[in-house]
């Protein structure tokens, strides 16, 4: 179990590893596609790495609902619930 | 007392004896693709790795391409068509429901009366074909089997759709499989997952096309007819994200399993030749498998695009030509695609 700040920090590391973006740029209100310029393939890589890191399942059909970093943090927090 | 049946005498080991390739001369670059879809050369390269793909002209068929690849593979194997006991063509783009492309090819090669049949396993078709050929030879039912992955995908795409058409190219790659003194083909993994049948699929069926065409004719509505032809001719579609996830993380496990059942590790490989679906799938698989840098990786997709069943033998042929020192080394090959189906094995490179 991790709190939302820990999830955000963990997610930022995953995004950094996949895209090279600085971790500070990964904020809750940032859109994966619009703000962070993450394409669908990188998004899948991030999703799979997040599943492993946080020990949750993020189904394919759920991924399209995760438009912002905050959406992803909330989903992971709830899934860990 | 019931008489005892004869059964064929098995042979202990098999190998790939020759490789062949056919690449159509017509080249389609990303600039041309961008006339059809709103994209850019940079976008396509970044997301797929593809710079060009080969496409065959109207007068070159799947069987013509298969023949070109087959003749080269036979030559390297030191065999003639008459030495073949079976001809297998893996294809999803031979435009006849029947007869098979393989029967025509067997005749062209002088292989008659060799067994001849087509395999429909999409991008896994070549690995399925190798598994089948290996089993035929080891069982003693055949001595030499020709396996070809041959595709003219350009006949079954819609240049204006964005999920898959711009990735696809035409071509053929062939191997000849025969008996060996030492093991040259590992136990194959060939499997399916029909639950994901729709993730890569034709958008409509031929029956749908026929019926809508007939309806437009009855109504004597020429505009509907034109629209019908544009919309309903069966072309390929895919759910890219779902396929990407499956291809990388599920298929990397299968590739590892293929190594395990072969009784070797990644350190023993000379080459890794995955289906050429997308450079980022290939790169991610290499990462997942933790391949040592000494292992050459097939990246033919950059110039050839995704050629479905032809992609692995084309990439293998290129690696072997450009790096003759890998002859005698092991190549891990894995195909995966519409079905969903997948197949993998390790072969000794001829």
From TrEMBL, chain A:
InterPro entries: ACP, ACP-like_sf, EAL_dom, PP-bd_ACP. The keyword Cytoplasm applies. The modification O-(pantetheine 4'-phosphoryl)serine is found at residue 40. Residues 2-80 form the Carrier domain. It holds the Pfam family PP-binding. Residues 1-81 form the EAL domain. Keywords: Cytoplasm, Fatty acid biosynthesis, Fatty acid metabolism, Lipid biosynthesis, Lipid metabolism, Phosphopantetheine, Phosphoprotein. The keyword NAD does not apply. Transmembrane segments: none annotated. Its main location: cytoplasm. One of its GO terms (biological process) is lipid A biosynthetic process. 4'-phosphopantetheine is transferred from CoA to a specific serine of apo-ACP by AcpS. This modification is essential for activity because fatty acids are bound in thioester linkage to the sulfhydryl of the prosthetic group. One of its GO terms (molecular function) is acyl carrier activity. One of its GO terms (cellular component) is cytosol. It is found in: Cytoplasm. Pathway: Lipid metabolism; fatty acid biosynthesis. Belongs to the acyl carrier protein (ACP) family. Carrier of the growing fatty acid chain in fatty acid biosynthesis. This is Acyl carrier protein.
UniProtKB/TrEMBL annotation, chain B:
GO terms for biological process: fatty acid biosynthetic process. Pathway: Lipid metabolism; fatty acid biosynthesis. The active site is at residues 123, 275, 306. Signal peptide: none annotated. SUPFAM superfamilies: Thiolase-like (SSF53901). InterPro entries: ACP_syn_III_C (IPR013747), ACP_syn_III_N (IPR013751), FabH (IPR004655), Thiolase-like (IPR016039). It is found in: Cytoplasm. Its EC number is 2.3.1.180. It holds the Pfam family ACP_syn_III. Keywords: Acyltransferase, Cytoplasm, Fatty acid biosynthesis, Fatty acid metabolism, Lipid biosynthesis, Lipid metabolism, Multifunctional enzyme, Transferase. GO terms for cellular component: cytoplasm. One of its GO terms (molecular function) is beta-ketoacyl-acyl-carrier-protein synthase III activity. Homodimer. Catalyzes the condensation reaction of fatty acid synthesis by the addition to an acyl acceptor of two carbons from malonyl-ACP. Catalyzes the first condensation reaction which initiates fatty acid synthesis and may therefore play a role in governing the total rate of fatty acid production. Possesses both acetoacetyl-ACP synthase and acetyl transacylase activities. Its substrate specificity determines the biosynthesis of branched-chain and/or straight-chain of fatty acids. Belongs to the thiolase-like superfamily. FabH family. This is Beta-ketoacyl-[acyl-carrier-protein] synthase III. The gene is fabH.
């Amino acid at each position: 179990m991790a709190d939302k700040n820990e999830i955000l920090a963990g997610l930022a590391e995953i995004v950094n590893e996949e895209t090279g973006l600085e971790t500070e740029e990964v904020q809750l209100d940032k859109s994966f596609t619009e703000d962070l310029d993450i394409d669908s393939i990188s998004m899948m890589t991030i999703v799979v790495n997040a599943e492993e890191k946080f020990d949750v399942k993020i189904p394919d059909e759920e991924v399209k609902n995760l438009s912002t970093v905050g959406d992803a943090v909330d989903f992971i927090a709830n899934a860990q619930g | 007392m019931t008489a005892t049946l004869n059964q064929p005498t098995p042979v202990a080991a098999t190998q790939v004896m020759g490789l062949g390739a056919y690449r159509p001369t017509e080249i389609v670059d990303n600039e041309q693709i961008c006339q059809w879809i709103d994209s850019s050369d940079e976008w396509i390269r970044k997301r797929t790795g593809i710079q060009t793909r080969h496409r065959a002209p109207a007068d070159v068929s799947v069987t013509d391409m298969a023949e070109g690849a087959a003749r080269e593979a036979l030559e390297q194997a030191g065999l003639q068509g008459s030495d073949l006991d079976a001809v297998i063509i893996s294809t999803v783009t031979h435009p006849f429901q029947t007869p098979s492309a393989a029967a025509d090819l067997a005749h062209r090669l002088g292989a008659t009366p060799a067994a001849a049949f087509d395999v429909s396993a999409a991008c896994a078709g070549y690995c399925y074909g190798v598994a089948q050929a290996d089993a035929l030879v080891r069982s003693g039912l055949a001595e030499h089997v020709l396996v070809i992955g041959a595709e003219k995908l350009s006949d079954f795409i819609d240049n204006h759709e964005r999920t898959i058409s711009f990735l696809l190219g035409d071509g053929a790659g062939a191997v000849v499989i025969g008996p060996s003194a030492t093991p040259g083909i590992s136990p194959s993994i060939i499997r399916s997952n029909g639950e994901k049948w729709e993730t890569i699929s034709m958008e409509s069926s031929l029956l749908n096309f026929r019926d809508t065409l007939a309806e437009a004719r009855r109504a004597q509505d020429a505009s509907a007819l034109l629209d019908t032809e544009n919309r309903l001719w069966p072309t390929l579609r895919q759910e890219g994200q779902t396929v990407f996830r499956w291809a990388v993380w599920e298929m990397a496990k299968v590739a590892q399993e293929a190594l395990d059942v072969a009784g070797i590790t990644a350190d023993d490989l000379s080459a890794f030749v995955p289906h050429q679906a997308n450079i980022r799938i290939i790169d991610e698989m290499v990462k997942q498998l933790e391949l040592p840098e000494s292992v050459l990786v097939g990246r033919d997709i950059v110039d050839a695009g995704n050629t479905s069943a032809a992609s692995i033998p084309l990439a293998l042929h290129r690696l072997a030509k450009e790096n003759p020192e890998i002859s005698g080394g092991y190549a891990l090959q894995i195909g995966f695609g519409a079905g969903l189906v997948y197949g993998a094995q390790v072969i000794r490179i001829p």
